[in-house]
Specification:
The complex is a heterodimer. Chain A is mainly α. Helices cover 71% and strands 0% of the residues of chain A. Residues 1-6 and 93-117 of chain A have low confidence and may be disordered. Chain B has two domains: 5-60 and 97-140, no CATH class; 144-245, Immunoglobulin-like (Sandwich). Chain B is built from seven helices and eight strands. Chain B has helices at 3-9, 12-16, 22-34, 36-54, 62-71, 96-117, 123-141; strands at residues 146-151, 157-163, 168-174, 183-191, 194-200, 208-215, 222-229, 242-245. In chain B, helix 5 (62-71) crosses helix 7. At the A-B interface, helix 2, helix 3, helix 4, helix 6 and helix 7 of A face helix 2, helix 4 and helix 5 of B.
Chain lengths: 183, 248
């Protein structure tokens, strides 16, 4: 992953110059996680596809704004993807769609989409999440995968606002340190 | 560190997960501008969040790839930040192979992207828009794509991107006068053996018309546009408002 992350940054500088082959390579690296993250947050396949398309075209459109000094290319793209997905969730009023999202967790049932080669990523994330306290891990999963605000997360977990803020931060710091080395 | 900024600092994690909203989000972002360590911490935590994202990867629908890759070249890219571009330098940087079609993309992008992003009301319309975008993208991406631009006698500019190897041309217009409902602009492929209709220009949006694809175009042909009765005609009945040669 470390190697492909470097490639990704170089690819983005080419995309910024209008290089379509580079964009194709970026697509092939990131369409899976971008779409997967949208599915995780939104659940609905049609909406997820729409958001994933928007995100990938946003990457094309704004590639010149990617600044390697401010973080990895992967984080840049995934930040765009997550924001778009949660914006969509939050723009929906309390619909039945939203209600189905109360319990976070893996997409199951009719999810026939093929898993791409992320077994290692999954394993590492699972292992690192396993090093957190239950509240830390639950809070992070609700906020990131569930698209909930920290206030909603606090309510869902039945803990105080200040507690959830702290748990999310501490947990994420631990995740960063756990996943940072050798990723 | 004041109590308030200490409280704000605790939000780095929630902020990295996009879990801060409303006035608090604005306050935190303001704080980030002034708090170097906070910004650094947010960056590190965003990297961790990105790993959480990677673990969710699933194969997207097959059609999505083609759709995204076909739409990208028709989408104007932002220039690099932090430089005040002079009007003449307002174009994005392009690789030499692309330079030739940049003008066409600029001329066509608005129309095509409009098509794609338009609030189409039926699946059929959406499918049509997507198919049209793909065909247009194929011409724009052809290695031999050439741009011809000409001023119409009635005013406005007509732009054609021609790929002789693919025998296709994509034609759009900007600033051409709007016609009464009883008239249309009709596109013709004119060869020594006569004129063949390539379809009607659609109604203009914001002064530009969405691209029309002309097939069976060969070197030596000419592309012409005439004003015809609504619905179009089998053969041109008026003098062309614009004629563009197709060169190899």
């Amino acid at each position: 992953m470390a190697g492909s992350g470097q490639d990704l940054a170089l690819l983005l500088t080419r995309v910024a110059r209008g290089d379509q082959a580079a964009f194709e390579a970026v697509y092939d690296q990131l369409a899976g996680p971008v779409y997967g993250l949208a599915r995780k947050v939104l659940r609905d396949p049609a909406q997820s596809e729409e958001i994933a398309q928007e995100v990938l075209l946003e990457v094309w459109r704004t590639a010149s704004r990617f600044d390697p000094a401010r973080g990895s290319a992967l984080a840049w793209v995934m930040t765009i993807a997550h924001r778009r997905a949660v914006d969509r969730v939050r723009s929906e009023s309390a619909t039945s769609l939203r209600e189905q999202k109360v319990l976070p967790g893996p997409v199951t049932g009719d999810d026939v989409a093929e898993l791409v080669e992320t077994a290692l990523d999954r394993q590492r994330v699972r292992r690192c999440l396993g090093t957190l306290t239950t509240v830390q891990a639950e809070a992070i999963k609700l906020a990131y995968y569930g698209g909930y605000t920290y206030a909603q997360t606090a309510e869902l977990l039945g803990v105080a606002l200040g507690t959830v803020k702290t748990r999310i931060r501490d947990g994420l710091i631990r995740l960063r340190d756990c996943m940072g080395a050798g990723w | 560190m004041s109590v308030q900024s200490h409280e704000l600092h605790l939000l780095t994690g929630s902020y990295a997960l996009d879990a801060v909203t409303g006035p608090e989000l604005a306050a935190f972002e303001k704080h980030l501008d002034r708090c170097g360590p906070c910004a650094t911490e947010v960056r590190g935590l965003r990297e961790a969040a990105a790993r959480l994202a990677m673990a969710t990867a699933i194969a997207p629908p097959q059609e999505m790839r083609q759709r995204v890759l076909a739409t990208a070249p028709l989408t104007r890219q932002l220039p690099p930040p932090g430089r005040n571009l002079l009007p003449r330098a307002g174009r994005r940087r392009v690789s030499p192979s692309q330079a030739g079609i940049t003008g066409a993309i600029l001329a066509l992008a608005a129309a095509v992207v409009f098509l794609f992003a338009a609030r189409v009301t039926t699946q059929h319309q959406l499918d049509q828009a997507r198919a049209s975008n793909r065909a247009v993208a194929a011409v724009l991406a052809a290695p031999d794509a050439r741009v011809e631009s000409a001023t119409a006698t009635v005013g406005g500019t007509v732009t054609a991107v021609v790929s002789v190897s693919q025998h296709e041309a994509v034609v759009s217009s900007a600033g051409v006068p709007v016609l009464p409902a009883t008239k249309v602009y009709q596109l013709w492929v004119m060869s020594p053996s006569g004129a063949r209709s390539a379809g009607l220009l659609p109604a203009s949006h914001a002064g530009t018309t969405a691209p029309v694809l002309a097939s069976g175009v060969r070197a030596g042909d000419r592309l012409g546009i005439t004003v015809e009765p609504a619905g179009g005609t089998a053969q041109p009945t008026t003098a062309a408002v614009v004629v563009m040669p197709v060169t190899a």
